[in-house]
Amino acid sequence: VQEQLNLLNRISDELNTDLDPGRMLQRVLDLTVEHLSASTGSILLLNQQNRVTDFILQQKVPRDQADRIVGTVLTEGFAGWVLNSGHGDIIADTRHDQRWVVYDNQPYDVRSVLGVPLRRRQRIIGILTLVHAEPHKFNPTALPLLNAIADQAAIALENAQLFRQTEQERQKLEAIIHSTQDAVLVTSPARTVLLLNLAAQEMMELNDQPWEDQPLQILTTNPELLNLFAPDAPTTGEVPLPDGRTMWAKITEIPGIGRVAVFRDISNFKALDKMKRDFVTAFTHDLRTPLATVKGYVELVRMDGPVTDRQEEDLVGVTKAANLMKSLIEDLLQLSRLEQLEELVRIPLDLEGILETSLTQIKPSAEAKGVKLAVEYRRGGLMVEGNAVLLVRAVGNLLDNALKYTPVGGQIRVTLDRSDGQALVAVIDNGPGIRAKDLPRIFEKFFRARPELDEIPGSGLGLAIVKTIVEQHGGRVWVESEPSVGSTFTLALPLLAEV
Ligand code: ADP
Questions:
Q1: Which of 72, 171, 236, 385 could covalently link to 346 via disulfide, CB atoms 3.0 to 4.6 Å apart?
Q2: pTM for the whole thing?
């Protein structure tokens, strides 16, 4: 008994050390043949349809002969009997047992046989057979032992197969991830690299440098790339590369794994965008001169006068149209200049000063229209770092809009406050408001809500300029609005750290 237990232990060790099903079964077979003093043995593996998918013979037998043996034993022979009856048995002497078929060219003599099924989840997945050249060689006590071995082998076999399946799936996924053109980078919560596909290795110019489990900051010094993985970083961003390409990154947080970043090359779009901007700049620039000429001629006509009242009305119309065109051109130029601005020169500014300047500029038109202006500084001494001209322009555009869209007798309020290290400038009007469906697009270039309804002229560029300026200052702008109640546009700008 002790010896049997030892054998079981050895086999179970053996089963757990090798995850290759073929090699593992071979070892099981070798050990059982040796310990039960058989001459040789075999294991057949069966699929769902009880067809032999694989077999392991302990003794080397030519392949075609092996195929024949396997075919015969399963249909007419002892293995077939084990499969049909569902349990193992011993043949004491093959000469007196129908279940043993003898065929031509039998490679070795068989007189004693011991066979058991390998069973997993009610199904027989294989048959383990031991044979001996002499009769009465297997003791009936060997049967339960062989059953126990078969049970263990079946479990190990299933594990090995599941492992192989998982491994195949893993390899498939890996192949897909590695062959995609998009760069994929996965980091652990501790910001060490878990995965880099080929495109990502190339993007980071790693050559053959090892990257697995390395901290990200050791592998790259690209500040934009590192920023994406900072705590609380935004989930998308552009990453310029030293070779001139620009990548667009999208980060996804996966609980329990870390962060997955996918990078797409957007260099072509960037180039196109630059071409478009260059074109707009050049074109609008060239439009200024003829426009000035139009206005000059209007003056000339007046000087050549006298003009009739009808003609004067027409001239006013021409001037109005020319002025509108001029402001459109100015907006376009301003926007393209802003977008091409690489780095903003910043100085510390008091926001109250900025608001005062913007309000002074709007005051005369507000008074003329009969719209009340109110201002409320809830906190004093709010300093930001920025460009005064641009910030005055941003607030000015919001005031212009508020005035433009608020009907006679309305009211505009400007408030200044702080929250979470940010200065908040709000421009609040009680005008017509903006429909919910227009809100998401309101800051887009050329977008005008309901232009057909109002006669109010505009280019649809004012808010795009505001947004660009605010973002250049590291801030945000948003709007809350309710139709026929009014609109509140808020600018949030990072406060200068107090010293
Ligand atoms: P423009 O005013 O030249 O049309 P903007 O970019 O400044 O362009 O504004 C885009 C659109 O947003 C406007 O056409 C208008 O419909 C809407 N809008 C902007 N400000 C207000 C406001 N204070 N009240 C109502 N609608 C507004």
A1: 385
A2: 0.54
